[in-house]
Amino acid sequence: MAMTGVLRPGHAQIRVLDIEESVKWYTDVMGLKYQGRDSQGRAYFKTRAERDHNSIILRQSDRAGMDFFGYKVLDKATLASLEKQLNEYGVKTERIPAGELLETGERVRFELPSGHVMELYAEKTKVGNGIPLINPAPWSKARDNGIAPVRLDHALLYGPNVAEVQKIFTEVLGFYLVERVLTPDGNANAAIWLSCGQKVHDIAFAEYPEPGKLHHCSFLMESWDQVLRAGDIMSMNQVPVDIGPTRHGVTRGCTIYAWDPSGNRFETFMGGHLPYPDYETMTWTFDTFGQGLDYPQRKLHETFLTVVS
Ligand SMILES: [Fe+2]
Hints:
Shape: globular
Bound molecules: fe (ii) ion
Oligomer: single chain
Number of strands: 17
Strand content: 25-35%
Structural class: alpha/beta
């Protein structure tokens, strides 16, 4: 598969209630690499394995949640082309100047009908991950610090108008629908999982009356052992755990859901099947959503449906 257009999730700006406590938690417990602060006081992080300067940005606020989620695109020409296609489709966009986020080029920002702010960008400074590009070792000792995920993998967002959101992602941004859960009457999608490459999902949405809500940002772990180790670290640090360790039916990924100190849910995730764009969408009826969420327990956990930030 030739990767063009939108490449991957690149950054998420998360609101936290106490920035100092959160910097310590994301460093010591999540095991991210602290990359510095900007003039607005925002704190920047990347995973140990990511090569670009930042992926998680924390902003102090009086309410938790997510300000925006950004995707890296192939190059500046692709950025301009996607901006034009969004405008032609009827989505208004705004250019955010280079440098407004540290070490990040110009961004194209737009709001989805679900109330979420999304961004596209082509440039973020490559800082490497401590592993040389010549004769690279498979991992570095830094992996042992905290949960230490491989990368920011995807987000699940809750909001209204999921059918319109799906059209923007599939008709304009080049994503395809990998899986879906139907509404109880079977006439619409209650939740959708969309991919822009060969990952099982790069974003997911669930229909919800309140706009702009964050269900979770997900961090990829290398193995099931690493997910279990993340669970150990959560317990050692009194992190409130929501669901897991278990396996999703939807995506077939293995997971733990838990909350950061501000009440933002996050996921430590591994595995999942590997779709191609020509694969037919897999569909779950609403009565099997419990298996879709938690395959062994077959349980539609109440918190999954109702707790968002
Ligand atoms: Fe997830």
